[in-house]
Specification:
The complex is a heterodimer of chains A (109) and B (167). By secondary structure, chain A is an all-alpha fold. Chain A is built from 4 helices and no strands. Chain B has 167 residues and is mainly alpha-helical. Chain B is globular, with a radius of gyration of 21 Å. Among the domains of chain B are: 1-77, Up-down Bundle (Four Helix Bundle (Hemerythrin (Met), subunit A)), CATH 1.20.120.1200; 125-160. The mean pLDDT of chain B is 87. Classes of the chains: A mainly alpha (109), B mainly alpha (167). At the A-B interface, helix 1, helix 2, helix 3 and helix 4 of A face helix 1, helix 2, helix 3, helix 4 and helix 5 of B.
């Protein structure tokens, strides 16, 4: 057990950086790639999670618990954001009967 | 041990790609569940046990079930799925790849960082994290409850049907 849960001493930190950068880029590409609003919300969740993982890796590497508390607050904000985002999505489906993000262009200048 | 890290990393990246590429929204959610479970495995490897448990409960248990619930409620089917043109999708992939390159290049300086404190494997346990949360971060913790209340009120207001614009 002791050898399993101390990955940060064996895995170099740059591997975590590469993994999280890859996950974040996949999230950004997904936001640009899709027009379905619900998939775009999921890609935002993916980006938040890649940042969470990197914060935890740095926190474990420096043995500083503040990073993990910050991850906890990011999770709180993500939960609130998803609740409001899905409410907006339901309203959008009810009003224009579509989940296409390109139809919401009235705020575009 | 190292094998576990690379296995979880491969699962996380492959399922994240499937989230973007999957035609069916329900398939996307299922792949996102797998991706988040892999990230929870990473938290366990980092000995952040509290975060691993909270991650599984909040993300897999609450947020993704909410996503699945809304997809079922809206009755989205893959046939009338809005799609971008092939050129836009190709540009999106190129932009994502370029962002990855820029991130790696700009984070190269972080790879020579030395650990600030002597190694302590107990920081991610519930007892130690709770002490930090309720001693140093008590005010942000209370403010986050206000955020939750306002988010709840906002979600209820947005989800309610407006009686004036009823047709």
């Amino acid at each position: 057990m002791e050898t399993v849960t101390t990955a940060i001493r064996i895995i170099p930190l740059e591997h975590y950086i590469i993994l999280c950068a890859a996950l974040f880029s996949i999230g950004v590409a997904g936001v640009l790639f899709r027009r379905n609003t619900i998939i775009i919300l999921m890609c935002i969740e993916l980006m938040l999670n890649s940042v969470n993982l990197l914060l935890t890796a740095f926190s474990a590497y420096h043995s500083d618990p503040a990073g993990q508390v910050f991850v906890f607050f990011i999770m709180v904000v993500a939960a609130a954001e998803v609740a409001v985002g899905l409410a907006i999505l339901v309203m959008m489906k009810r009003n224009i009967n579509s989940v296409d993000i390109n139809l919401l262009n009235r705020l575009k200048w | 041990m190292t094998f576990l890290f690379y296995l979880l990393a491969a699962v996380a990246i492959l399922t994240a790609m499937m989230v973007v590429l999957s035609r069916n929204p329900v398939g996307s959610v299922i792949h996102l569940v797998l991706c988040f479970l892999a990230i929870a495995g990473h938290f366990i490897l980092l000995n952040a046990q509290f975060l691993a448990v909270v991650h599984i409960i909040v993300y897999t248990g609450a947020i993704l079930v909410l996503f699945l619930f809304v997809i079922m409620l809206l009755n989205l089917n893959p046939t009338n799925e809005p799609r971008k043109t092939p050129l836009t999708r190709f540009i999106a992939l190129i932009a994502g790849g370029l962002l990855f390159l820029v991130l790696i290049a700009s984070l190269r300086g972080a790879m020579e960082i030395r650990a600030a404190n002597p190694f302590n494997h107990e920081i991610g346990l519930v007892r130690d994290l709770g002490k930090v949360l309720f001693k140093d971060f008590l005010v942000p913790f209370e403010i986050s409850s206000v955020l939750f209340i306002s988010a709840m009120v906002g979600a209820v207001l947005l989800g309610k049907r407006d009686p004036l614009t009823k047709n």
